[in-house]
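My current task is to audit a protein record that another person submitted. What it holds is a sequence and that sequence's fold in C-alpha cell form. Thanks in advance; the entry in question is below.
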Amino acid sequence: MSAHHNQGALTADVERRCRRHGLRGGFARWSFFLAEPQYRTLFWWRLASSGRPWSGLCRRLYLRSSRRSGLEINTDSLGGGVIMPHWGRIILNAESIGRDLYVLHNVTIGNDYTTGRPVIGDGVFLGTGCTVLGGIRIGDHVLIGAGSTVLSDIPSCSLVAGNPAKVLRTIEPDHISRMIGY
C-alpha cells in the first residue's frame, strides 16, 4: 500500500469515527480516535504499512498494541473509514478490504488453506462473531449477521445470515449507513 493511500485511509478513519460525535479540531479528534485500543492498533498498523523510514518502529508498536487490543490485521489493502465500536478479538486476514468497513467484536476474516483469502467490498457490516473464510468475494454494501459463517461469494446489496450464511434479502446501498448512523 502506498504511503499516500495509507495517509488518506488514516484520515478517513478519523473522519468517519469523529463525524457521528460532531468533533471538530485536530487535537479533539485525534484524542478521541486514539483513546480506544482498537483504533490505536489501527493507527500503528497504518503507519507500519506506509513504507516510511519509521515503519519498522511502528510495526513493533502495532504488534504490542495488537496483543493488548485483540485486533490482528494481515491484509494487503484496507480502505479508509474503518469503524470498530467494540474492542475484542478481531482478525482481518483478507486479500483486500474496501472502504467504510464496520466490524464488531469476535470477527474472523481469513483463509481456509485451500482457496485463499477473501476479498471484501466497500460499505460492509460484519456482525458480532461472524466468520468469513476462503477465497470468496463479498460485494459492496453487504450486511453479515451476528454469528454467521460465510463460505461462498455474496453479491452486493445483500443481507446474509446463518451457518452457512445465506442471502436473506436484497438491501438498498445506504441501508447500513442509515442503520448504524455512520
Notes: The radius of gyration is 16 Å.
